[in-house]
Every structure is written in C-alpha cells, then in structure tokens.
UniProtKB/TrEMBL annotation:
Protein name: tRNA (cytosine(34)-C(5))-methyltransferase
Keywords: Methyltransferase, Nucleus, RNA-binding, S-adenosyl-L-methionine, Transferase, tRNA processing, tRNA-binding
Xref: InterPro entries: MeTrfase_RsmB-F_NOP2_cat, MeTrfase_RsmB-F_NOP2_dom, Pre-PUA_NSUN2, PUA_NSUN2, RCMT, RCMT_NCL1, RsmB/NOL1/NOP2-like_CS, SAM-dependent_MTases_sf
GO molecular-function terms, A-Z: tRNA (cytidine-5-)-methyltransferase activity; tRNA binding
One protein family per Pfam: PUA_NSUN2
Annotated ranges, domain SAM-dependent MTase RsmB/NOP-type: 56-432
Binding site for S-adenosyl-L-methionine: 188-194, 218, 245, 271
GO biological process: tRNA methylation
SUPFAM superfamilies associated with the record: S-adenosyl-L-methionine-dependent methyltransferases
Superkingdom of source: Eukaryota
Coiled-coil intervals, chain numbering: none
GO CC term, one of those recorded: nucleus
Amino acid sequence: MGKFKKSKKGRNKQGNEGKWDETPRRSYQDIVRENEDFEKYYKLQGICPDSEWDTFITSIKENLPTTFRITGSKVEAKALLKVVKSEFFKDILNPTQNSKTVDESVGENEELSPDELKLINLPWYPDGLAWQLKLTRKDIRRSEEYFRLHNFLISETNSGNISRQEAVSMIPPLVLDVQSHHKVLDMCAAPGSKTSQLIELLHGDNNNIPTGYVIANDIDNKRCYMLVHQAKRLNSPCIIITNQDSGAMPNFITKSDGKPSIVKFDRILCDVPCSGDGTMRKNPDIWLKWNAANGNNLHRIQWRILRRGLEMLEIGGQIVYSTCSLNPVEDEAVISRILKEANGAVELLDVTSKLPGLKFVPGMSHWLPASRDIKGYEKYEDVPEEWHQQIIPQMFPPSKEEAEKLHLDKCIRVLPHHQDTGGFFVAVLVKNKLLPWESEKKEVELENKDQEKGSKRENDKTNEPQRKKRRIQGYKEDPFIFFDENEPLWPLIRNFYEIDSKLDPTCLLTRCKEGKKKNIYFTSPGVRDIVINNADRVKLINTGVKTFVRCYNTDMECAFRLAQEGLQSIIPFIGPKRRVPITKDDLITLLTCDNPKLPPEIFRLSPKCQEHLNAISQGSCVLSFVEEDNKNDPDNNSLKLHLVGWRGKTSARGYVPTADCVHYLRLCGADVSKYDVNKFKNKPTGDLSGEGDSNSVKIDVECEVNENEPEEIIEADAEVEKMETANTVS
Ligand SMILES: C[S@@+](CC[C@H](N)C(=O)[O-])C[C@H]1O[C@@H](n2cnc3c(N)ncnc32)[C@H](O)[C@@H]1O
C-alpha cells in the first residue's frame, strides 16, 4: 500500500524534516553502561546459559545497528528495493572489498561470519524488505563513503517509503496475522511504528478499501498526536485514534447490521508500557535508572491491560502481548497469571513458523520475583512483609503441573546477542471461549445501559446548542461531522470529478460545524459506523484522510481540489475525464520542473497527455502513470503512480512534495543526482531536508489553501521526529 502514505505538512512547517539521524541532545557517549543490580538480577533469573553471559552482556552494552524496512504496496516497495540493492548497498558499502559484505540469506553465507557482515537482509521479514546495517546512524552520517546512502535514507524516510524501526519491534504485527476484514485494536499504540505496520497489513496488496479497521489508542494525549502523525503518513481511511486508559477501555458500539451491539475485535496488539531494558542499546540512560522495583510495579498495569484486551477480543480472535523488557516478571509472569485466570479459555499459540530464521529462546517457566535489593524468592511465603506492596503472589511462576498446561515455552524471547538487536518478548494468545468472568448476559446488560446513557445524551443535546469543542472528561477535539445524503457541496464535487455512485458521500466528513468547510476527509464505512456510534462515549482524537481541499483559484469550476493524501482511497471512483494518462517521460518532465513559476507547457508532454489535457477545463486532476512493461501482467504487478496534478491555462503541474518527487523520480530510474549533494564537498542545494521547498513542484500559490494544522499535530510531528531520531520507543 505505497498508496497509503506520506504528506508531512506539519513537519515541514516545523522545519524538522530530514533529521532522521540527528544525535540525541544528551550525549549518550558519557553514560557508563554498567549497573550491578541489573547484572545480578538477570544472572539470578538465568535469562541465558552461563556460557552465553559474557556475549550477552557485551552485546547489550554496544550501540544498536541501524535497521529500516521498506513500506508500501508490494509493487512500489519491490521497485524501491531494486533501487536499494542496485544503487546503494552493493556500491556504497565497502565498494572495493568483498561484495559478500551484503548478505541476503543469513545463515547460508559460509565465507563470512555474521560479525563481518555489514548489511543483513532480515530473513524473517516478508519479501526481503527489512535491512540491518552494522553501522550506527552516526557512522553513516559522518563518513563520506556513505553520503549517497545517507541522502537516500533521509529522503525516503521523509516521503514515508522507508520506516526506521528497531528490528525486534517489527515482530508483533507480523505474528498477529491481520487480514483486511479484521477489526484491530492497538491498545498502547504511541508513537505508532507498529500501528503503521498493522495498517499496512490491513490494506495488504488489495486496492479495495478494507472492510476492517485499526483503532489505535494511547493513554497519553500528547502521544496520541504522534499517532495522528503516523496515520497521516499512511493515508488510510481505516484508522481511528483514541485516547483512553486501555486497562479500562470502554466498549465500542456498532450498528453495522442495524441493531446496536458491542464490537469484539478480531486482532489486538497489547504492546504494553514496560521497563524497556531490552532497549538499553539505543537508550543507554536506562543503565542509570534500572532497578528491580520498576518491573514489579509495572506487572499490575501490564496484566490489567492484557486482561481488558482479552475481554474485548472476539472468540477465535488473537491477541499479541509484547514488551521490550527482558524481565520475566513483566513477561512470562503476566502471561502465566492471565492463562491461569482464564482457566482454559485462552491459550498460547506457537507462531515461530511465521518468523523463519529468527534466533530466539523459548519463554521461561521458572523465575524468581525479587525485591529492590535483588533478593529472589522461590515462593510468596518467603517474601518479607516490607516488600508485600511490590511483590504479589500472582507474580510467581506456575507449579510444575500448571506449567505443563500453560506451555510458556511458546513465548518468544529475543536477546540482544542472538542477532545483534534489542531485547524483546512476544506472546500470541488465542481466545477459545468466553472468559470465566465474562457472560453473554452481562454484556447485553452493559450494552443496554450504554444505550440508555447514549439516548439521554442525545436528548440533552437537543436541548442545548452543540459547542464547537465538546468536552468529555476534559478533552477537547473538533467534532466529526459526516455529510448527510443531501450535503449541498457534494453534487458540485461529484460532477466535476465524475465520481461513481458507489462512493458513499456519507463517508465524507469535516471538522467544522460552522463556517466554510475547508478540508473534506474520507473514512471507510466501518470507521464511520464506529465514529458515529461512539463519539460521545470514547475520546476520539482523529480519523479520516484528507481528500478534498477548498481551492481559492477562481479558474476552476469546482471549489475543491484533490488532496494527494486521500487520492489513493478515492481513485477507483474518479471518472475518466479528470484522469490524465501520462508516460514515464511526462512524469519526469513534470517532476523535474524546479521553477513553480514556470511549469512545463502542455505542448512539451506526450501526444496522448496533451490531447487529454486540452480536452478538459482548468483545475485539479489526477496524473496517472502505469508502467508499460508489466501492463498485461496477470498478477497486476505493473507500477502505477497516481499524483494530484493541475491543468493550468497552457501548462500542467504535478502537485508533489519534494521528498515524494525524488522518490517517484527514483522509481522511474530518472537522474536524481542534483538532489544527491555530497555535503563533505558542497553545501547542499538540492532540498532533501524538506526544510525549504525550492525544488518542490507546486501548484499556483493562489490556489494553495491555508490549511491550519492543529498545534498539537505540529508539536507531535516534531516530537515523533525527535523520537525516531533518538530511537526511543518505550
Ligand atoms: C511500549 S510503548 C508503545 C509503543 C508502540 N506500540 C509502538 O510500537 O510505537 C507503550 C505506550 O503505552 C502507553 N500507555 C501506558 N499506559 C497505558 C494505558 N493504561 N493505556 C493505554 N496506553 C498506555 C504509553 O503512553 C506508551 O505510549
């Protein structure tokens, strides 16, 4: 779904683009990576065989290699992968040395040990799209040898076509088995790297809008706007962002088949808050503050979230529980506790076949809950009273007989030295029947109560005018106002773009009750159902992908231009008139135009494109490129690029941000060397940073609308940038 991505207006405004590798403000070099308690605690737990201890402890003290994955639809991602392999990895990494520094089949290379390999294609990530570079970001940034790779990583990150994500953090969405019809809940989602993967998996390679959706939730309001930022990159109409404590997450109501019912989710990701000691390689400050009490205190929160997740899960549904902590009290102890409480209603799944080539150890069945002074206890009765607040009976490992039933060995533990990553824990659970404390009756009663509350609010609402900013438990968000069947704006837009009647206009929404509508967003019908039926009961932060934008250019018959963000969602519904076929050469001509004041004249484009443009009125249009080579491929593997364009009086333009522009040019095999400035020799003129827009191909200024991004989003954009930079996830 290369289609569902990009646009980083907020980031551009902040001038934060391109800082993919900026060193975190505080200097990690000065941190002494030692913590006696940490070592004592994990030796006590026996998290690895004694013979591996030295390798483990050495590895966890080293800086983390750089990892990234290529995002997008299979076709577009594969095209970019080809560029990565042919243009960057082979030539740039040790060009004069043995080409086997690139390993595409880990384990099969007999000549070089993994230690000698600089570049590894992660074998367990589908389609070879994830890579690990044995170089830190600083190595890449500081060395002239890698300047082209550095430029590439910056610009493709900016355009959302690669995602910098720690290798192990890619695992949970992969084992969740998300399909396009699934209702997916991401309970602790911010900053959202896994949410992005979930959305990509939901869209799969199907061009249809998925019937399922992803609800991405976080308790931290500020961090919710990081999710908005991630969602903006993906341009999916199937995501909703909510701001709740997931340990007490309210039920969602649906009326999809007429009568109200409680939504049960098919897939849930429970990537809980944790001590994060698996991330010490990228967050060395954890060495300074690590203590055993931390994990003990988190156990209860983690258990509470997982428990609520299981309640919200459909029978037959799957939930992934994950942490970036090595601590069994935060990992197996939570799983063991919940399995015991569920009394057979929930069981662990073995998902190792979904991760071919991943090195890991099975989950532990024995551990020693320990007090802050690193004294481990075999049983609760041995715990001195002073620690009873911290250590509770439920944290203890199962008895031998219990352990045989629980199969904690189906959990996956990745330790840093296994394949030079961070540490990680992941477990997949399936719900086979109602939980012992759940009953159909209770759910129905609850639902009725919810309905009563809902209708009371409705009645109250009719008696008082709706305020622009509603307040639910202190939160304020602009309302979500869906078009009704008779929306006066719709016929105008529909006729201009010849929009098929299959597009339901009631799935379009705005965020302003009064005044001129500026931006029109689009959601899938499933998302619309959730928003309409839950806006009064759940803190909804954001939904919808920007699809039409008010345009003040009076040369256009329609008051709304297309927005690139929503184009991929509605392209199947747009009629042939405003879809302009372009060739690869047209695309290159349109995208290499540097001067917004001098866009290419129509006569410079291909005859077919000229003919089409000459036949339509001025204004917004779609520029559609379909790769000729594979046009008749039965698997429909031809590269298709749809860009928002503008038909001017005598000229045409692509309306594409700079980073996207470079990306498309790269995919077309065009020359992008003018953007590829060697900063060690020249001051950059090509604008890969995105801070300026000198090279972006832009629409007439008068048609550009003043899209005021909410302050929270701009701040969050900057914050995500900072986090990605510092690689801090937990
Ligand atoms: C490990 S991080 C999640 C990382 C995220 N899944 C990702 O891949 O980018 C944990 C998140 O849980 C959130 N959180 C903590 N307590 C929570 C709660 N009770 N309900 C919902 N979210 C919570 C934190 O704000 C934090 O963003």
